[in-house]
Amino acid sequence: MKKTSMYLRHALALGLTGLFTSLYAGGPATAGDPTALGDTREPGGTVRIALLLDTSNSMDGLINQAKAQLWDIVNQFTRARCGDDRRPGLQIALYQYGNDGLPAHEGYIQQVIGFTSDLDEISEKLFSLSTNGGEEFCGQVIQTSLGQLDWGHRSQDLKMIFIAGNEPFTQGRLDYRNAVDNAREKDVIVNTIFCGGYTEGINGRWKDGADRGGGEYMAIDHNRQVVHIVTPYDDLILQLNTRLNGTYISYGSRGAGKQRQQAAQDANAMELEPAVAVERTVSKSSALYSNPSWDLVDAAAQPGFKLSGIDKEQLPSELRNQSEKEIRAYIASKKEEREALNREIHSLQAKRETFLAREQASAQGELESAMIRAIKKQAEEKDYHWE
Q: Domain boundaries in the chain?
């Protein structure tokens, strides 16, 4: 039988929220920041994070917290800069392991989604996860992610694995030491989160996995409770989100479906907690939430975009009988409206973060501090900094 998932719930709830909120405590991008309105320059580096999540029995809490923490993670990267002062790109991959519903011959492991910057797609995949009993082969899931994912070869990229589980790190035929050593050869840092006592995690080799992987080992106190703090700015931000959705102009064969996906992920976030929906709205107002493959406003900002190359039958019905000049004017008006809404959201988020910092000032614990130190160290070695 599995141990309770409460440890892992709080690993993500306390660790990732505290980590990224504190790490980027400078607040959201402002109107004068190029990322606030869409910095179209090529990223100076790319941050790639692979989340390896245990979805065996009793891990529903882990999955729910991963859903909730996605937007916190994204929001804090809006202020990250590389050595040449350009913003880094952000890509996230997701694996599940330890689930009896997955093929035994593949080690009860599945790539849920490879590296992508499509935030709605990542959210949808997280919400698709369900739990079932199984064997947890940590070494094998690490090795699988190394082999299947395109980690890139650029020295300025920051590449990290976060693996969470509550069984010994040594399970499975593939020696975890070989997998972790292979990760280091690819310049991938392995961080481990064990849901149990600190000494128990050491005995289970989770700390050795992190030490060998150049990362941090974390053991979580499951008695720590997580509370979403309501702020006076939440309702206003959610109202702006509704207006923000109205600035999207879907086009192409995927447009209508992607717009429905956007609305569905809004609803999923809201169902979890209004505060999660607020964080998602903040993410949507940043340059990291970019959808040029289906939204004309984002597409028009891309180099080489040609409106004439789009079949009018692939446009919304209200634009099909419009001239190219009229369509361009419509796109420009929606862009202007979106930028104004983004500025309002950023302004409210700055006030919200001040409110939250005041309310949470006495709540930060050892886990947050440890993770902040770890990520700062790992990022600074790649010449990353924060505004």
A: 6-32+41-227+363-386, 234-359
Tell the CATH superfamily of the 6-32+41-227+363-386 domain: von Willebrand factor, type A domain (3.40.50.410)
Choose between 303 and 75: higher pLDDT: 303
Check if the beta carbon of residue 86 is closer than 8 Å to that of residue 41.
yes
pLDDT at 149 (0 to 100): 97
- Which among 349, 183, 336, 226 is positioned nearest to 281, based on CA atoms? 349
Tell which residue, 89, 84, 68, 97, has the closest CA to residue 157.
89
Q: CA of 274: how far to CAs of 198, 236, 237, in Å?
A: 33, 12, 10
Arithmetic mean of pLDDT, 94-98: 94
pTM over 0.85: no
CB 6 within 8 A of CB 61: yes
Alpha carbon of 205 to those of 2, 143, 283, 370: distances in Å?
18, 17, 36, 19
Query: Maximum CA pair distance of the chain?
Result: 69
The candidate with the shortest Cα–Cα distance to 149, out of 193, 103, 94, 97, is 94
Question: What is the tens place of the pLDDT at every residue in 6-57?
Answer: 444 444 444 444 444 344 333 433 333 333 333 444 457 898 999 998 888 7
Q: From the CB of residue 31, how many other CB atoms can be counted at a distance below 10 Å?
A: 13
Cβ-based neighbours of 220, under 8 Å, separated by 6 or more: 7, 8, 10, 11, 14, 15, 193, 194, 195, 196, 367
